[in-house]
Amino acid sequence: MYAVVMQEFGGPSVLRFDRHPDPLSRPGWVTVRLQASALNWHDVLVRRGLYRSPLPHILGADGAGVRTDTNEEVVILPSLFWGSREAAPGTDWEILGDHRAGTYAELVTVPEECVVPRPAGLSLTQAAALPLVGVTTYRALFTRGRLRAGESVLILGAGGGVATMATSFAAAHGAHVVVTSSDSAKIAAARELGAAAGVDHQHSEWIEHARSLTPGAQGFDLVLDSVGRWSESIQCLRSGGRCVVLGSSVADEAQLPLRPFYFGQFELIGTTMGSPTDMGGLLRFMENHDVSPPVVDRTFGLGEASRAHEQLESGSSFGKIVLLH
């Protein structure tokens, strides 16, 4: 098969389109002939060597294609070996593309529980863009964040895959959604997905501005923080509010003053990608709600993966970047 293979860690230029051995079949696993794969920031971290992946290596967590055994159109859940507890993944859990060959290839093999039918109504590129951010967002908002209709939610960032999907999901659920961005065009696009308003998080008084957009200016019921700005996120909450943390693209460490935290009765909740059960919940949610499909910003050919990574790292995209195979 052809695949995007990296022989070393580094910048986008290490991604080379080349021949690679087909994946081996094994009992309980399914081989998928991929037609599209979506990029995630996680892929950039793998490419840079953060996860110490084996070399040579094929990146990629998200994908859509056809099962080679049944010809069924499927999407891939990149959450492997979740385990038996829904509260958190087990010790064997890993993300597809970390230590096993991923989806930047013509073929990929995954456990059978990690393929689900392609949702009706989604194009090929939208289907490829769904699994990682979809199941991550569903778990963050509903399984962990316990978002209810009528609550207010602040989503840090407006343009990334998680942010765009979270905006759509929360609005479809009946929540009052506010986003943050330094780009007014991204805020405008988020409003098209259902956000009620947006604030410029580079402004010195953005927290006060955000709180003013909630009932009585008391603060948000839920903040979705995928960047790592914990101290600011907590300040945006109402008393008893919940902050769900699912990323650290801005900062790897955070400091919180403890007395305001416990007097505010706040909850700080960590989460990551979801389980097969969360994936089932995601698909049912999409069936039962008027949800905007995943936003796809640009597509590239599989052989253009290095250019696609340059685009992803530029931070200029709104939504997902997808490779067509």
From TrEMBL:
InterPro entries found in the cross-reference section: ADH-like_C, ADH-like_N, ER, GroES-like_sf, NAD(P)-bd_dom_sf, Zinc_ADH-like
TM segment ranges: none
Annotated ranges, domain Enoyl reductase (ER): 10-323
Organismal lineage: Bacteria, Bacillati, Actinomycetota, Actinomycetes, Mycobacteriales
Protein's name according to its UniProt entry: Zinc-binding dehydrogenase
Gene3D superfamilies: Medium-chain alcohol dehydrogenases, catalytic domain
